[in-house]
Amino acid sequence: MTTWITICDTCKRDDWAESGAALTDGEVLAAKVEETAEGRVKTRRVSCLMGCSHGCNIAIQAEGKLSYTLGKFEPNEESATAIVDYAALHQASETGQVPYRTWPEGVKGHFITRHPPLPKNGSES
After folding, report:
1. Which residues contact 44 (CB under 8 A, 6 or more apart)?
2. Which CATH number fits the domain that encloses residue 68?
3. Range of the domain at 93
4. How far apart are CA 55 and CA 13, in angstroms?
5. Fewer Cβ in 10 A, N or C end of the chain?
6. Which of 59, 81, 75, 49 minimizes the C-alpha distance to 3?
7. Record's SUPFAM superfamilies (predicted)?
């Protein structure tokens, strides 16, 4: 099952306006994640994951698996690498649950929510 990293490209951390940066923090993180993820997992950008107090935000998703929202990332290479490494572990997992001992250090402390998979065919079974 293909795992997707959904990246909020409108995220702005608290100091963004004062920084004078031309790109949002989300755009910077998205570019780094996209480059790092190439050939490993899928990526897509969205405008707003509604986690503004947790920016920079991403979601890890795959059909039939647990999904996760993560936030409070720095828009840098280290964050991008940790995000993609975790997404690859998610992709390799049958349920989307990744044992904590295998988590990349860079995602620890960044989890905001976990969502169960949607029921198949609209039923609870």
Report:
1. 4, 5, 6, 7
2. 3.40.30
3. 4-122
4. 6
5. C
6. 59
7. Thioredoxin-like (SSF52833)
